[in-house]
Amino acid sequence: MNITYKQYEEMIDYLEKIYNQYVGLKVENCDAMLIHHDESTQVYGTCDGSLTVSHLIEHTDDGLTLVAYMYNTPDGLEFEINVKKVDA
Question: C or N terminus of the chain, fewer CB within 10 Å?
Fold first, then answer.
């Protein structure tokens, strides 16, 4: 499992595009709400205006997942990639 800098930049662009589609949507009366879901991308919003976009980049045969996240903070948009072991 590896990722190139070009793939990293493309992932930022993709998540920012998805983020911008949903950033103005208001969520009411719940802590978190799933706004969008497809086979590899999810968007969650909260009533305080927070928005998180996640995208599954890769899932390996030995149980590792590589997931990219974009979310808003008081300082602006944050982007991160996490690698996690998923128990079978």
Answer: C
| Distance from C-alpha of 77 to C-alpha of 23, rounded to nearest angstrom | 11
pLDDT for position 61: 87
Angle at CA 5, nearest 5°, toward 42 and 86? 45
Q: Which residue has 């976009």 as its token pair?
A: 53
Q: What is the mean pLDDT of residues 45-65?
A: 91
pLDDT at 88: 59
* Cα dihedral 25/67/31/34 (nearest 10): 50
